[in-house]
Amino acid sequence: MIGVGDPILEDYTFLIRSSEESVLSVTPPFTSEEMLVQVRNLSTANRSPAWRDTYARLMQTLSANPILKDGAFGITVHPELAVEGRWRSNSNLDWIREEKQNSALLTFPLEFFFANSLYARGDLIIRNDPSFYNDDKPYGTNLPLDVQKLDANMPLKAFISAGGPWWSFQLGRDRLSFGNGRGGNLAISDTPDYYDFARLSLFSPNFKYSLLVTQLPLETPSYFYSEGFQPSQTDPPLLKDTTQRYLYMHRWDLRLWKKLSIGVSEGVMVGNSPLELRFLNPLTVYHSFFSWNDYPRWGTDGDMTGSIVSLDVEWAMGGGISLYGQAVMNQFATPYELEHWPDDNSPNGLGWLGGVEYNSDIAGWRSLFYFEAVYTDPYLYVLSSPFASFIWMRRLSELKSKQLRYTWIGYPEGRDCIELTLGSKMFKSPISLSWALSYLDRGEHTIQWDWKKGSAAVQERTPSGTAEQNWSIATELGWQVIKPLRLTFFGALQWVQNVAHQSGTTAFSTEFAVSAHYIF
C-alpha cells in the first residue's frame, strides 16, 4: 500500500501528467497493482531524462521484495530514525510546519506479505504528542523531552489489506486523501492524524469505484462550543459523546480520452447509530433514505445525520499543463426556500477549490509549478448538531487534563476562509527543492460548533466578522547526503494581521527547522 505523503506519489502523478494525460483518481492509499495498471500503459519512448529516472525509481519501489521470505510468507522491516530541531522568532503565532509534517523520533514499520495478495502493516513509533507543539515556546524538537507527552495513540498506521489486478480492500488505521488539492482537499483530506476505516476499491485503466466506511467517535465538552452555543437542555439530556458515529461514502472516478478525469463522491454522516447495512449499498443514493427522520433529534432542531457531495475534475490540456477543481456541498438553501422560509432556513455549506499545475523536465530536474485557490462558506462542514457535522476527534496523551484534539475531515483551514497559494517543487537526486507563497483570509468561525439558522446566517459571507489576514512564504531544501541518510532544511517567513480578529495589529515571525533522517 502506497500511503498519503509517500514521495512515490509525486513520482506517480508526474509520470502521468508530464505524459499529457490526466490521473484517473488521486485517492491514496493505493495498492502497487493499482499504480502499475496506470504506469504500464504509458509509452516510454522519447522521454526526458527526468521522466526516465522517475519511471525507473517508481518501478523499483513497486517491485521491492521482502527481506525475509518463507514460501508464501514474507516480511520487511526498515526502521527510520529522525532527529529534528526548530525555532521561531514569535511564539504568539502558530508554527507553519505542523506536527504532522514532522517525523517520529523512531519509526519501526513492520510489513507482512502473504502469497502476493495479502498485506499487513503496523508502525511502532516513539513520537511526541501533538499537544507538545502547541505551546508558547520559541523552539521545538521531536526528541521526547517530556515523557508525559509521548503519543499514546500508537500505532497511527496499522492495517491489513488484500488485493489483485482489479480490486483492493483495506481495513485498519491510516491516512486518507481524496483529490488533487496541494494544500488539502474539500471532502476527505489528510487533515486528521489518521482514520479508522474499511475501504473497498475496484479499478481499471479508466474507471474506479471506492466504498469508504470510517468510524469517528466524538465527545463534546463545554469548550467544544462557541460562546453562547453550549446547549442547556437537561430533560431529556442531550447526547454528549458517542463511539457509534460513522461516515459512509462512495465515489466513482471516470477518465475520458485519457485527458479528462471526473470524480463524484457522496456520503452521509450518521451521528449515533451502529454500523448499518443499508448505507453500504453501492447503487443507492444516500440522500434518498431521508435518514434524518430515522433517529431521535438532538434538542429541538438538531439532525443526527448530515450529507456531503463532492465533484472533482482534472483536465490535461497538453504541454504538461493540467487544470483541476473541486466542489463540495453539505447544505444548500434553494431560492424557493429563501423566499418562503427566510427565518427558518439553514445557511449554505459550500466549498470551491481550483488550480493549475505544470509538470516538466527542466535541465534534468523533475519540476512542478502550481497555483491554487480555495473558498469555503462560513457554515461548510457544520450542521444542526455536532454529531452530524464533519469533525474528527482524537484523545491526547495528557490523561489528567483529558484533552481532546479536533480537526476538520475536509480542508485543513476548514470553513470561512479564502486561500491562494503559488508554489513549486523540484527534484533531482540527491537534491529536492520546494517553495510556496500563500495568502489566507480567515473569518471568525473556527472548529468550535456554532451552527444557527435564519436569514442572518444565510446572509453571512466569507470571511465573516473581522478577518485575519495571513501572508507566508516557506521554502524547503532536501539533501540525500548518502543513500540511506537525508537532511532537510526548512525556512519560512510569516506576516499576520488582525490576530485573534480583535487587535488589528500586524505580527511577524521567522521560522527555521533542520532534520536528519536515517533509514536502516
Give a concise summary.
This protein has 520 residues and is mainly beta. The chain is built from five helices and 25 strands. The strands form three sheets. It has an 18-stranded antiparallel beta barrel. Strands 11-12 form a two-stranded antiparallel ribbon.
Question: How many strands, what sense, and barrel or not for the largest sheet?
Answer: 18 strands, antiparallel, barrel
Q: What is the third-level CATH name, the topology?
A: Porin
Distance between the termini: 20 Å
Number of structural units classed as domains: 1
- Average pLDDT: 89
Number of E strands = 25
**Proportion of residues in β-strands:** 35-45%
The top-level CATH class is: Mainly Beta
- Listing every helix as H and every strand as E from the N terminus to the C terminus, the arrangement reads HHHEEEEEEEEEEEEEEEEHEEEEEEHEEE
How many helices? The count is 5
Proper CATH architecture: Beta Barrel
Structural class: mainly beta
Low-confidence stretches: none
Radius of gyration: 23 Å
**Bulk shape:** globular
